[in-house]
Amino acid sequence: MIRLIVSDIDGTLVPEGGSLLNPEYMTVIRELTDRGVRFAAASGRQATSIDVIFHELRDRVYYLGDNGACILRGGETLKAMYLKEEDLRALLKDLRSIPDHQMLLSVEEGYYTDDPDEAFHRLVFEEYKGIGKVVDCMEDYADVCIKLSLYCEQGARKIYDRFYDRWKDKFTIYVSGAKWVDINAPGVTKGEAVRWLQEKYRITPEETVVFGDNYNDISMMMQAGLSYASELSGPDIKKAAERVVESYEKDGVLKVLKQILEEVRESAK
After folding, report:
1. What residues does 226 pair with on adjacent strands?
2. Cβ of 231: how many Cβ atoms within 10 Å?
3. CA nearest 2: which of 45, 44, 33?
4. Class of domain 4-80+188-267
5. Which pLDDT tens digit goes with each residue over 6-18?
6. Cβ–Cβ under 8 Å, residues 77 and 85
């Protein structure tokens, strides 16, 4: 029987940067959790941005924020993994010499940028919402950073290729969206966050289902007995998953959740 369901958000449940979820998700997830199935939202988003979507279920849903760097439930941090301050300061110095991107730094309480671009501010503070602000200098938060993100208007892969080889041994670096690159501490992945939940609650991969759409979702697909890639995913992501699910435009994940709920109901008879 399924005991753990984990889903990515952007590109899987909602369009990139979206925050409006079909209310039926809440009804289905509420009953699943009532019946003993744990549900986790695993995202490159900072936890307060995840909370904008799942707030009414925050005491039931686990937030695997910042690619699993910070795991929360009910507002309580269960685990957090930080970037090494010395390495992060050196990385920030390097990235400031590379044009065509904006930086966003996550801490447990929210996220910050010191980029002056107002269009970027509207994107991260109005679309992704959550708790965030513009600060004078992101280096001031280097000692409590759990993730650094780069927004690349001209495409994430272009920026990723310019610095990945220099820093791949110091950080976990992913293309997490068409315009986003995420940088975490070594060993931080969504897959490791899923493994942590499995070990904590003695859940096997065979009892786990995951949904995703991008490269940072592959690690958690490998932790599940059943994994789904969005039909909008690239070929590498679809290859990593067991099955393909309809897009967020068709509420594909919701349809599968309803099927799982029916199976859970039947098993309880």
Report:
1. 209
2. 15
3. 33
4. alpha beta
5. 999 999 999 998 9
6. no
